[in-house]
TrEMBL record:
<dbReference type="InterPro" id="IPR051313">
    <property type="entry name" value="Bact_iron-sidero_bind"/>
</dbReference>
<dbReference type="InterPro" id="IPR009057">
    <property type="entry name" value="Homeodomain-like_sf"/>
</dbReference>
<dbReference type="GO" id="GO:0043565">
    <property type="term" value="F:sequence-specific DNA binding"/>
</dbReference>
<dbReference type="Pfam" id="PF12833">
    <property type="entry name" value="HTH_18"/>
</dbReference>
<dbReference type="Pfam" id="PF01497">
    <property type="entry name" value="Peripla_BP_2"/>
</dbReference>
<keyword id="KW-0238">DNA-binding</keyword>
<dbReference type="InterPro" id="IPR002491">
    <property type="entry name" value="ABC_transptr_periplasmic_BD"/>
</dbReference>
<keyword id="KW-0805">Transcription regulation</keyword>
<dbReference type="InterPro" id="IPR020449">
    <property type="entry name" value="Tscrpt_reg_AraC-type_HTH"/>
</dbReference>
<dbReference type="GO" id="GO:1901678">
    <property type="term" value="P:iron coordination entity transport"/>
</dbReference>
<dbReference type="GO" id="GO:0003700">
    <property type="term" value="F:DNA-binding transcription factor activity"/>
</dbReference>
<keyword id="KW-0732">Signal</keyword>
<feature type="domain" description="HTH araC/xylS-type">
    <location>
        <begin position="168"/>
        <end position="266"/>
    </location>
</feature>
<keyword id="KW-0804">Transcription</keyword>
<protein>
    <submittedName>
        <fullName>AraC family transcriptional regulator</fullName>
    </submittedName>
</protein>
<dbReference type="InterPro" id="IPR018060">
    <property type="entry name" value="HTH_AraC"/>
</dbReference>
<dbReference type="GO" id="GO:0030288">
    <property type="term" value="C:outer membrane-bounded periplasmic space"/>
</dbReference>
Length: 631
């Protein structure tokens, strides 16, 4: 099926929710047969059944979606007494015969992100069953977001070969639901993983945890509302998920350095040029929710707030770009007619014969025409890779710029997290390079980024050899990439020879990270694991090999620490984990590494990145620690 064409028909067709019914075996509401008089979705939310749709049988279990059209006959054969589903009936007003046929087609879909769809079905059903026209109107407004989520997941599955980036999906969920109470555990539960595993992925992809990112999104949204409306601070706080205006104000000041009112006052001149300034109407007061004073877990109830600020991401992203253009014009009219003062110089002088030439580059989002020799690159994640090839980007994101192993980043502009459209546009990039999570984090997503400059979405390999080769191709620096990889391979060979007299053939290595309230074992991706196990070819313990490298274990309990510790231990202790370290030391001292004293202390912040420049320095540190301990 041509999903792009089908989605395009949804975008141009007037649709209306006609009815939503919940069927359950246990209360006898499930019909044996049903003849559809309009288009419909069947959403299995519980149990398992064999569903016949126009003569074709489907095996359904939670969560499973079927679509059919007028004249289709449904048959239900429950495989147990707990089967439940929603039947969502809708009408599509189509002018063209091919459009009408598209809405009558039968197809099935198994979602990879279940909870958002289940929540939308529950909300539609609850609202539809109310008697007031206002509730039914809201149910109507909830139908299209349901369809959008279905089509989004179908499109992602079709275009990305079924590979779903959990961080990208979680970012999408946060952007769509930041007004609601969200905890790390609930977010992880949507995608069937533990909160610690999701936190690990977030930190690897964005440099901060999921709840930290949620707070950044809320602060970012509140700054937009302060500049683009005259709404009261209480109303803005409620619209971004905080019912307590005092808590919101403290949080806002913590992240921006000033109060919400001071932020608005300091930017008053900017607001005057904002085309959305007419949004002056007051917002209906929101009901209060309880919270505690912990940034991560302050929500105790599940009801979110509805606000007048519910713009869709693409629409709001387009508005941002329009606002940005006007703001930049205003800045230029104030006498800044040249390159912005905060803007670093061009990467290279455009003097060679390739200046202005372009080529087609294939990436995760398709094909994009990019410069053969890009001069002004904004890289949202891969910073060390560019610097390793002698290219200094004009902009990058906050947490990537904080890498302590990267030097001379002072003149690289910080575009923020989430990435800020105005800042990126002011840098006048000719190429934007991003990972899928950072593309999703941008207001309006990849499409909005692409309107600023040619944008490509690349893999996050966390492998300097692959990354350098990839960016050598992107930047037209193939020769520099080849030389870097050859030099790195030579260095690895020299270091292997250097440590070989001190390492026994059967010696095993482990990496333990002690944090406040938690213990983590690392595999072969970062924190020195890629260096130990991949490059130097040293052996992990059997438990690290099976449970961490080949499994999904990351966070462990204190009592099992000895099971993972080998003959040598690399230990990273985070600030504030003194209590946990004392407990761990009692267990480590009886391990092979503890008995021989072969414990090497490493800096967590230095060993978290996995870009080429960081890995080279980490390699030097690791080899030096092992050699010096044997002198």
């Amino acid at each position: 099926m041509d999903w792009e064409a089908h989605i395009e028909r949804w975008s141009r067709t007037a649709v209306r929710l006609l009815d939503i019914r919940q069927y359950r075996v246990e209360n006898g509401t499930l019909p044996d047969r049903y003849l559809a008089h309009t288009s419909f979705f069947v959403v299995t939310t519980q149990g398992e059944a064999k569903v016949s749709l126009s003569g074709k049988d489907y095996q359904t279990r939670s969560l499973h979606i079927l679509h059919g059209g007028k004249g289709a006959e449904l048959g239900f054969m429950p495989l147990g007494n707990d089967f439940a589903c929603y039947l969502i009936l809708y009408n599509a007003e189509c002018a063209l015969p091919e459009d009408r046929e598209s809405f009558r087609m039968s197809y099935e879909f198994i979602p990879y992100a279940v909870l958002p769809l289940k929540e939308q079905c529950q909300a539609m059903d609850r609202l539809w069953q109310q008697s007031t026209p206002l509730d039914k109107l809201q149910a109507q407004s909830a139908f299209l977001p349901f369809v959008h989520e279905v089509m989004r997941q179908i499109r992602t599955s079709a275009t990305e070969s079924g590979k779903h980036n959990l961080v990208t999906e979680a970012i999408h969920y946060i952007h769509e639901n930041y007004r609601k109470p969200i905890t790390a555990e609930e977010l992880a539960g949507i995608y069937g993983c533990s909160a610690s595993y999701l936190s690990r992925l977030f930190k690897s992809h964005l440099g901060l945890g999921p709840i930290e990112y949620l707070i950044h999104v809320r602060v970012h949204k509140s700054k937009q509302f302060l500049l683009r409306s005259e709404a009261r601070v209480q109303e803005i706080a409620s619209s971004v998920g905080y019912s307590d205006v005092y808590y919101f104000s403290r949080l806002f000041k913590k992240h921006t350095g000033c109060s919400p009112l001071q932020f608005r006052e300091d930017n008053r001149q900017t607001v005057q040029h904002n085309p959305s300034r007419p949004l002056k109407s007051s917002i209906v007061s929101q009901k209060h929710v309880l919270h505690n004073d912990n940034d991560n877990y302050y929500h105790l109830i599940r009801e979110g707030d509805t606000s007048m600020f519910r713009f869709s991401r693409p629409a709001f992203g387009a508005m941002m770009l329009l606002c940005t253009t006007l703001l930049l014009n205003a800045c230029q009219s104030n006498g800044n007619t040249g390159t912005p003062a905060s803007q670093p110089a061009s990467v290279e002088a455009a003097t060679d014969s390739t200046a202005g030439e372009t080529r087609i580059y294939e990436h995760l989002k398709g094909q994009t025409e990019i410069p053969v020799k890009p001069r002004r690159v904004v890289s949202l994640f891969h910073l060390g890779e560019l610097i390793a090839l002698g290219v200094k980007p004009v902009g990058s994101t906050t947490f990537i710029l904080k890498n302590p192993l990267l030097s001379d980043t002072s003149d690289i502009a910080d575009v923020g997290v989430p990435p800020n459209a105005e800042k990126i546009m002011s840098l006048e990039p000719d190429l934007i390079v991003t990972t899928a999570p950072f593309a999703e984090a941008f207001e309006g997503g990849y499409e909005a980024l692409s309107k600023i400059a040619p944008t490509i979405v690349v893999e996050q390999y966390n492998d300097p050899i692959k990354d350098v080769e990839m960016f050598g191709d992107i930047l037209g620096k193939q020769e520099e990439a080849r030389k870097w990889n050859e030099t790195f391979a030579t260095k690895i060979a020299e270091y292997k020879e250097k440590i070989s007299p001190f390492i026994g053939a059967d010696e095993t290595f482990s990496i333990l990270n002690v944090r406040p309230g938690a213990y983590y074992i690392y595999g072969d991706t970062n924190m020195g694991g890629n260096i130990l196990y991949k490059y130097l070819g040293l052996k992990p313990t059997d438990k690290v090999e099976t449970d961490v490298i080949k499994g999904e274990t990351w966070e462990i309990s204190a009592e099992v620490i000895p099971d993972f510790i080998g003959d040598r231990l690399f230990l990273a202790v985070n600030e504030g984990a003194e209590k946990e370290l004392k407990e761990a030391e009692k267990l480590i001292q009886n391990s092979p590494a503890g008995k021989t004293g072969r414990i090497y202390n490493i800096d967590f912040n230095q060993f978290l990145p996995s870009d080429p420049i960081s890995v080279e320095q980490q390699l030097d540190i690791i080899v030096s620690l092992m050699v010096d301990s044997n002198k």
